[in-house]
Specification:
heterodimer; A: alpha/beta; 8 helices; 14% strand; B: 467 residues; alpha/beta; 5-stranded parallel beta sheet
Amino acid sequence: MEKFTRMTGLVAPLDRANVDTDAIIPKQFLKSIRRSGFGPNLFDAWRYLDEGQPDSDNSRRPLNPDFVLNQPRYQGAQILLARENFGCGSSREHAPWALVDYGFRALIAPSYADIFFNNSFKNGLLPIVLDAALVDSLFREAVATPGYRLTVDLEAQTVTTPAGQVLAFAIDPFRKYCLLNGLDDIGLTLQHRDEIQAYEARRRLEQPWLFADPVPGN
Amino acid sequence: MTPKTLYDKLWEAHVIRREADGTALLYIDRHLVHEVTSPQAFEGLRLAGRKPWRTASVLAVADHNVPTTDRSQGIADPVSRLQVETLDQNCADFGITEFKMNDHRQGIVHVIGPEQGATLPGMTVVCGDSHTSTHGAFAALAFGIGTSEVEHVLATQCLLMKKAKNMRVQVDGALSQGVSAKDLVLAVIGQIGTAGGTGYAIEFAGSAIQALSMEGRMTVCNMAIEAGARSGLVAVDEVTVAYLKGRPFSPRGPDWERAAAYWRTLHSDPGASFDRVVALDASTIRPQVTWGTSPEMVAPVDGRVPDPDREPDAVKQESMRRALDYMGLEPNVPIQEIQLDKVFIGSCTNSRIEDLRVAAAVVRGRRVAANVRLAMVVPGSGLVKHQAEQEGLDRIFREAGFEWREPGCSMCLAMNDDRLQPGERCAATSNRNFEGRQGTGGRTHLVSPGMAAAAAIAGHFVDVNSL
């Protein structure tokens, strides 16, 4: 996983509440058995005027000029500003994969759905939670100011506006540690192999039915 | 001792260790796997040279991409076919039990887990699928995970996570005639909102929940995620224990009595503290129909499409306008005037035998309305399909003009060929009415099986009791 420390990036404002993961990456692209290449189909149904398929040549598809990511001023955006309950619905990790593949490194919203929030951390994508009123003011500034950029400092847990306003955000220490160091948490968990095995041995005695082998051919 | 909630008990029984910030290493008893969210996880294992920690904990099935029509020629779409073949290959390579597409036990992962007794009370159950909350109906701590976590569970049998807060949704009283578990949970979502349960595990309790069959409880817990909660829960009672007796993966012999005795402790203690309590009177719940593009956008069948002009909150007002525009609906239109093009009875929410019985009772001796181009029933599993055929339900549906299909996720998310065309309007017993969910430009209204059946006959929404 790529480390996340400090970044300054162009902000794109996506002014909708309850953006679901079906909207972030529609189902037809979930047939892929890879974890890369989803960027061109991020927000596919909003971004293009036709219906995309896994084998479509996206460079030849008609763009929806009204969609925020198609506006010239937001090209190269790395921070997505969103509304409440971003990422609700399906557990598909293809949603953060698509956001990262497109070029986003951080999200700012008043709230996220739990599974999406969790999935983002596993992919070096930082979902920042800020108070709804602050998010609202960032929306106004981002829309009013072409080239609006924010600086995200994970170590300091701050978002800094072009005017120098510093907004603090909270994050779990463990998640912060993993992101700052780009750690694969499977490796971390396997450091506790002995404890897992001891737990399993105890449970095998207490609740042996949990460890029965599946009965084939039933 | 401090009284504990059911969620507290399940959580504490599975914590192996805690980090200083409260992050816990949680042991996972059952891992359900399907073809869409697992290929990258297996690839990750291979790349790191890792093996599954405990293959006997894993049960795999292909459900999202499988055709619901004739399967003798396999899957026509090469991309879908590759994904299913990849699951087959991964299960073969790693020694994982899989119900393949032509196995009579194949079906939707959240239907077959309980049906096989692979979901048991007191377990932690995960799957790379948000509707894993379904299994909480058995007092199992069950929740959806992403693909990185699928890989993590395969490799370590554990997950790193923080404890959620406790919410109790208390539903007392009796549901009226024609009002089902689906209406109950849609009414709950309408009340608390699609993010109302975010950060919580929801325990559904009260006399109306206890009166539900296991199928009904699964429907309720299935949609906990549509209220934002990763997990839904219902306490164990004799209905739970009776359902599990004799299932293929259920404990047998002396283990059965030991297990059942433990399961009967799986309820919230009197006086246990909840961070939030929501109460509903079951007798006031009417048959529900969603009108928008979020499950919280729901109204009683005798209600009207709401008017955004009356919504004070600006963000919500904008969401309502967008939803009505997408749905092609005008404010204040009576729900019963909404005409339908298609009807879908199926999905992990409502494709179990009880659901099919209710729908069949409505359509028996009637005909699907002329304006309904397609009405289809997709049983949740091969075993549900077989049972329904034994009972003659397939004949009732066919004679009424429904198509009777093979089991799978089908038009709930339209990854296979079952989908809406742009602008088509569908009464669906599934769980999500998001934009494009059932096909690009498709318009979904979520309802119960009885209400979907009634809508198919009438050609528009109608109170199932009025037929």
